[in-house]
Amino acid sequence: MPDSISSSLSSNTPASSNTTAAITGSGLSSDTSALVANHISKTVSGPNGDLTILSDASVTVETAEAIAIVGPSGSGKSTLLGLLAGLDSPTGGDVELLGQSLKGLDEDARARLRAGRVGFVFQSFQLLPGLSALENVMLPLELAGLDDARGPALEMLGQVGLADRAKHHPLQLSGGEQQRVAVARAFVSTPALLFADEPTGNLDGETGAVIIDLMFSLREQQQSALVLVTHDTALAQRCDRRYKMVSGVLSPESDASHPGGTA
Ligand SMILES: Nc1ncnc2c1ncn2[C@@H]1O[C@H](COP(=O)(O)OP(=O)(O)OP(=O)(O)O)[C@@H](O)[C@H]1O
Ligand SMILES: [Mg+2]
User: Fold this and answer.
1) Which CATH code of 1.10.3720.10, 3.30.450.40, 2.40.160.10, 3.40.50.300 fits the domain covering 2-13+21-252?
2) Atom of ligand 1 lying closest to residue 76 CA
């Protein structure tokens, strides 16, 4: 879904009101779940008729909670993530993002709801190639209406260890560095909720581990909820709960090796 991703990052209408809440965290009351999906499904039309790629999925993610979604390639994990984030619309069911139903919201309204409150980290980094590292990190703050995005963006680049790469463009950075910029961009606005789709899928093991440690330490520091899609079962174990996806069907993982867990 590259088009919807880039539109979610680059062409959102800036939040016009309540900017302070948008750039300083969730604005969620403590009893509001970060995310609730009720019986969502997705059917697409193909050459041989309709194809259901996600059926009847229900998920709740509480404030500051981390969930993992694991499952084989092609099972529907990225499809689900796109629906949960409001990058795409379900054909059935409803998603409540940060306490607000996405039903009836058009693409711009969904983007405004996400602005400054929802972060993304993708397998393919998805930095804007024409912008420097610093400008990529400034973008979510600018979209959320902050006048001076430069200072906080520079500080965030420092937190991911790239203060000295601020002026570099994505193609002048290694894959691991690009993903660190993407992590900085995701966390610069103190998001209430972070979506990550195979964030280490294009990185070697060692570099991937650095990225994951960064993501988990920033989400801990900022108390961001996390929805993490991964093939890596060890990584999934770092989350509070796990779901598995098989052929478009999502189910909570009953995990005998974690008797203390509630999944
Ligand atoms: N817009 C679409 N039209 C038709 N089929 C689609 C569309 N989007 C996804 N699919 C199909 O839905 C299925 C699930 O795709 P999805 O990308 O969600 O899988 P995934 O679990 O993320 O796989 P991977 O681990 O390889 O990233 C695949 O068979 C894919 O071809
Ligand atoms: Mg995928």
Assistant:
1) 3.40.50.300
2) 18
